[in-house]
Amino acid sequence: MLVTHNVLAHWLNSDHADVIDLGSLKRRLAEHGVNGRGWRLCLDYGDALFSPLQNGLFSSDQSVAIASNAIASNAIAYLRLLQACEMDVLPPPELVASMTLWHLPKDRLSVIPPLFFRAAWKACVAAQYSETELDDFIGTRVVPVASWFFSSGSHESVDDIRLKAGWTTLMRLRREWFIAQARTLGEEEWPPILRSHVWDALRFSALFSETQLEEEGNVMGHCVGSYADRCRSELLRIYSVRYYKTGRRVATLSAIEVRTGHWEIDQLKGPGNADVDPRVWRAARVFLDKLGYVSSRPGPVRQFLDCLRLIAADASEECPDFVF
What we know:
Strand content: 5-15%
Radius of gyration: 24 Å
Number of domains: 3
CATH class of the largest domain: Alpha Beta
Order of helices and strands: HHHHHHHHHEEHHEEEHH
Largest sheet: 5 strands, antiparallel
């Protein structure tokens, strides 16, 4: 494999010649804290080292001068991150590419604690060895945890001892953080928004704990019991649909807020994931209108939902003070 070192030299503006002076490049990197381990990775892998990020954190729509400085800073930060992990090989390129989705403050790689990156790296390797699809693991586990970690400010508060404990601990801390934020609004594990609503002989009752979801899933014979993490960290709410007079369960509704005050049906299933009749669909749409009206009103619950939206989408804005 042909190893080239053109892009790093270009970003550092250290050499415009056709043949890169590796000695000069090494000295420039050393001036910025890249040690022998980082230099060895750079020497061994060259430009390929940075390729997973060249469509993300190593590109910019800003002016050429600003972009060049930002990219050079990120390149140096990435080398220092790798050397601090002391792994001597490169992380999975899928993991590296996912860093563009981590909501890093000002897209700066320098804010990533090496122990956090090492924990994510080892978790990805473990997933590969357990024959878990790596892209799926990164999308459903790594990105959500990283998005929370950086957008909530936890990268500044979680200590090294807990980071050393590994990925399972980070997942637990994320879960506890969301529960703690929800508990500022009540005793539920996530704010129910609208606890109960009756229309056309049907009652829509909010499920606001993992225990309630598991009970609903067991009785109805579907997988809603596994939705707790989504309810804690996403704009998703689950409702048990029952006959008002008898209490018999008819269906389970999962609703998702696609924009402020506008909810859509994620799933509406009867027992065993069976289809429901049109009457239930009509009632569900009426219920969503009511849910939208309640959720759009200003107040602590709306602030909480807005923060979830930022964590899930674009954390470049500031969340209301009561949450963070």
